[in-house]
Amino acid sequence: MNRALVFSFMLIIALPLGTNLAGIDGADPTAENRELAEFPNRPDSWQSAWGYPAAVSRWFEDHFGFRHLLVRWYGQSRLFVLGVSPTTAVMKGRNGWLFYAEDGALDDYTNEKPLTTLEVRVWREAIVRARDWLRNRHISYVFVIAPDKHVVYPENVTKALRKLSPTSRTDQVYAALAGTDVAAIDLRPQLLAAKESQRVYFVTDTHWNDRGAFVAYQQIVEAVRRQVPSTPPAWRREDFVPVETHVEAKDLARLVGLASLSEIDLRLQPKRQQRARVVEPVGAEPSAEVGRLVTEIDDAKLPRAVIFRDSFTSSLVPFLSEHFSRAVYLWQNDFDTDATLEEHPDVVIQEIVGRHLYTFVASPELVSH
């Protein structure tokens, strides 16, 4: 009996390594929202040889046999049996919703740490300086804060989390810009209204879906048109066919190792031909999350744009690009004078997600008076 137990134990602990030796990779690159360790190159010096065992160990931890199954079982048992998230990066909400819990997201929900008087002044100065610098060069400017999912769907956040103040950092920034005539677009009222008739964010992703992105796009384009009349009007909802498709779970589900989950993606399929094409990087999709993405339309009558953005703009690109002869999307929160001068735009759009008001510090000194 004891020998059978020992043999069974040795067999079980040897199986992961055995599957690797048989050429079977236990990792699933799509199951986790991160880069997995790669197998290290053979050492070619004493220095690289010294770190080689640790590198192999990191690779094995990400690729040992049956790893993706064990990760999935662990995530399922924590989420569905114990009712808690398998990772601190994701918060389990109500009605099957998942919420991002890092990168300032929890603070943004609870409003625990408002901006100080100095921080409010810095944000105001940075945005006004950017507007003034652009105005002196006859370039228009639009500033927008993308609301996090918990802002639009607070009813699906766990009851264990409480707001400590009714005023958010987003509220503070918009209040600071009141009276400056900066085109600062508050998307929250329109998104809250839209959610009454449709879901505007993903259930298993931190971002808005096509329906939510379209609501934001219409507000942004109208703000641009008020300053640049040559900008074509925003497309109407009637220009799209609503489509519902089952898709694999999005980024938050992958963070908890549950890429096997699925949800219904509420897409908008255009009825007319979209003219914008991605010219950089060559072959990239409009929604590609890259540091620099450029779209063009062969129509010199259309204005040019530079868009400073984060991941929330990815689903805006297919909509916004239809209004500009050239649109350059740069993945950064800071306003960049050099990039702007290089592109000679008619308008600059600066988008930042609300939670980044906790992790990003505005830099007015980057823009000269």
Give a description of the structure.
A seven-stranded mixed sheet has the order 4-3-11-9-10-8-7, sandwiched between helices. Strands 1-2 form a two-stranded antiparallel ribbon. It is of the alpha/beta class and 369 residues long. It has two domains: 2-65, no CATH class; 98-366, no CATH class. Strand 1 and strand 2 form a beta hairpin. Helix 5 (117-135) packs across helix 7. The radius of gyration is 24 Å and the shape is globular. The chain contains twelve helices and eleven strands.
Helix content: 25-40%
Instruction: Report the β-strand fraction as a percent range.
Output: 15-25%
Q: Order of helices and strands, N to C?
A: HHHEEHHEHHEHHEHEEEEHEHE
Structural class call reads: alpha/beta
Number of strands: 11
Report the sheet with the most strands, covering strand number, pairing sense and barrel closure.
Answer: 7 strands, mixed
Average pLDDT metric: 84
Instruction: Write down the domain tally.
Output: 2
For the biggest β-sheet, the strand order reads 4-3-11-9-10-8-7
Shape type: globular
Radius of gyration: 24 Å
> Helical region count?
12
Unreliable residue runs: 72-79
Calculate the terminal CA-CA distance, rounded to whole Å: 83 Å
